Amino acid sequence: MFMKVLLAILLMIAVVSPVASAQTTPTDNTTVAGKWSGSFDGDSSGKFEMVLNQDSSGKLTGQVIMVTDDGSRYPIDLKTAVWEKGQLTATYENPSDGGQVSFTGKFADSDLKGTWQTNAGQASGMWQASRAN
User: What is the three-state SS of 58-110?
Assistant: First the structure.
């Protein structure tokens, strides 16, 4: 009887473990698709929103919307956006100087957190974002 109970428990653990892993290690674009609200700091600081969409072919597209202290919003289209191996990697062109801004991030609990840099490291910092309603 004890062996049957032990075997049943081990079987339940084996069945539940892949489901739990899938929930804690996001692997597809739909995981990051949606609206995010966050902040960045470092050589520059501020607030932003990010909208990530998945098109019909499964590719990520989107925008970063810079939000100024007075509430003005400046949308910038992402040039690239990839969710691969649990990491978001994206780039956009800085409208003020035409330089490239790149950022990467991973899930930390339910938030995205990572680093950003401009023009191959001339300026850099950290960012974080939470799902927006």
Answer: CCEEEEEEEECCCCCEEEEEEEEEEEECCEEEEEEECCCCCCEEEEEEEEECC
For the chain, 133 residues long, the average pLDDT of each consecutive 10-residue run is 41 38 50 94 95 92 95 96 94 93 94 94 95 87
Would you give the distance in Å from CA 38 to the centre of its chain?
Answer: 11
In whole angstroms, give the CA distance from residue 45 to residue 90.
Answer: 18
Q: Token pair of 32, please?
A: 């990051």
User: What is this structure's pTM?
Assistant: 0.75
Cα 74 to Cα 84: distance, rounded to the nearest angstrom: 27
Helix, strand, or coil (residue 114)? strand
Element (H, E) at 27: none
Rounded Cα–Cα distance for residues 111 and 100 (Å): 24
- The end-to-end CA distance of the chain, in Å, is 51
Q: What is the rounded CA–CA span in Å between residue 52 and residue 60?
A: 6
